[in-house]
Amino acid sequence: MLGRPVSYRTRSSRPESLGKNSLHMIANICLTIFVIGALVVTIIAATYEPDDPLFQSPTKITTFLTSISNSTFQSNNTVIRTGEDLMAANQTALATFGSGTDAAETKETNSYETSSSECEVDPKEPLDCKDPEVFQLMMQKAIERFKDIHFNRFGKPTPGPEGNTCDMAWRFRPKQGKATGFNKDYRRFVINRDNCTLSVVSIGEYHSGVNARKKKKKNKNKIPGYEPASGLQDQGSFSLPAAGEMVNDSLPVVESEREFIRRKYLIYVGGADRCKSMKHYLWSFLCALGEAQYLKRTLVMDMTLCLSSVYTSSNLDEEGKDFRFYFDFEHLKQAASVLDQDQFWQLWDKWQRKDKLSLYVAEDFRVSPKKLIEVKHSLIMRKFGFVEPDNYWYRVCEGETGSVVQRPWNLIRKSRRLMDLVAAIGSKLNWDYDSVHIVRGEKARNRHLWPNLAQDTSPDALLSTLQNKIKDGRDVYIATNEPETSFFEPLKHKYTTHFLNDYKELWDKSSEWYSDTAKLNNGAPVEFDDYMRASVDAELFLRGKKQIETFNDLTNDCKDGVNTCNTAAI
Q1: Strand-pair partners of 268
Q2: Helices 83-95 and 132-145: crossing angle, nearest 10°?
Q3: Nearest alpha carbon to residue 469 among 545, 541, 565, 558
Q4: pLDDT in tens, 373-408
Q5: How many CB atoms are located within 10 Å of the residue 175 CB?
Q6: Could you tell me where the DSSP H helices lie in 264-400?
Q7: Strand 252-254 vs strand 265-270: parallel, antiparallel, or unpaired?
Q8: Where is the DUF7075 domain positioned along the sequence (predicted)?
Q9: Whole-number Cα distances in Å, 221 to 225, 229, 239, 334, 416
């Protein structure tokens, strides 16, 4: 039987295959070692139980967090901030941009400990109000103190007159109520510094932190999102209202002759709108302003108005009332192109002949704005005659014109000086009150048109009606045209009542409102008239947590007299 030749070798034992086999063997050994090592590490990690101080007693936790470590070049003995501290700081920061509710409900201490290195200062040195911890403490304390308001934004603290005082401003609005606008406040904080601990001792009254009130700055930059009328520049710069900012309703001025002649203007002259009710005045004024916007022209407006006798203590019509007493001219001049007529006529007389400025007169209110938009003259003058009601300005916006010219109601706001009074009174009430609007006066005396009003608004009837609407002991603000507030004396047995006259110090001779309005009136004092009173009363009523109206809530009489009620609303 023949065997295999002696020289025969398998393929794996050939010399050329030995190198590859060795590499495979080494790779398999390395992989085996890696897998075994990974398995060992996994088992150790899963079964190892260190002595974690965070799960030990409070004493051990304190020791862990305050222990001294020499891992750096210098000994570090600062208190370590934990995740709770960071979360609390974030919640407080969010409160400055949102409602502030979550931050107000967060349970934090009212003092903060600083590091020993920060405490190594002379106790007599003034407090650093710009310190982030001081700022955070002041924000937290304000949120805890004023629980019935939403904070919109906090301003940076500024030093007060004493070394331990800081002033801070903020914007806010009441949590409840129908009003949605923001108010401003700035208060003085007294802060105690005891070794490494800061604490707020007290918070001052409304507008007590005068150092945090922003002052006017000269700034020629344009407001983002708004292109001001070319050629018009404020005597004082304008910026968006911020917490504590002063009112800047100075009259716009024309920069140069070139800018004046480049502009196109619209003016309303004559008519029988003066000395009518404020509602009539606004209806006509906004018609003129709407047409000016439609024609892309600057409205030349009379900055004085005639106050109807229904609002004056003299029972006579009173001329010469400044527009800025009642309305926010700062907002108006920002959003629309307007110019005071006294300044306009001075410049017109100065440059009209030289620059050949042309005038177009429209004497009939039926002249359509669609026709006037084609007019190229420098000035369009609408003249109104003497026959009522065809000489009312608002007639321009009637008929087909109403679909073209829109009244810009968003440009009219109540005077910020009046709104400051609203904020001051609301703050004195801590924004925690209910409100009742009680109409009496002429309507209560006219039993032909309002047969039940006098009886339904009597003290006994009010007590009976309100007992199911407002809880006993509540603060109740009563907005009323009843001149004798003693008429409502019986209500004090169940409620803490408040009236506008209770806060007359806010507009007396020593008040900021008094001095500001006098400056607008060439130094002459300004009466706090009935229209101003009605404006402040209405705003305070809207900010009550519960609002009780006269008509529908207190009486079944119709607001405008017998048989004038809206059937759908009953």
Answers
A1: 382
A2: 60
A3: 545
A4: 999 999 999 999 888 888 999 999 998 888 899 999
A5: 17
A6: 278-295, 329-335, 341-351, 369-372
A7: unpaired
A8: 259-550
A9: 12, 13, 9, 13, 23
Q: Are 98 and 141 in contact (CB under 8 A)?
A: no
- Its pTM surpasses 0.85: no
> Which range, of 68-77, 132-141, 269-278, averages the lowest pLDDT?
68-77
Q: SS3 of 112, please? A: strand
Q: Cβ contacts of residue 437 below 8 Å, gap of 6+?
A: 479, 480, 537, 541, 547, 548, 549, 550
431 DSSP assignment: T
**Percentage of the chain modeled with pLDDT above 90:** 57
Q: Who has greater pLDDT, 305 or 98?
A: 305
What's the rounded Cα separation, in Å, for the pair 117 and 141? 25
CA trace torsion 392, 396, 400, 402 (10° rounding) = -90
DSSP 3-state percent helix, strand, coil across the chain (nearest 5):
40, 20, 45
Closest C-alpha to 259, from 340, 377, 351: 351
Rg (CA), the chain: 37
3-state secondary structure 169-228: EEEEEECCCCCCCCEEEEEEEEEEEECCEEEEEEECCCCCCHHHCCCCCCCCCCCCCCCC
User: Which residues, including other chains, have CB under 8 Å from residue 57's CB and lie 6 or more apart?
Assistant: none
CB-facing half-sphere around the CA of 6: CA atoms within 13 A: 0
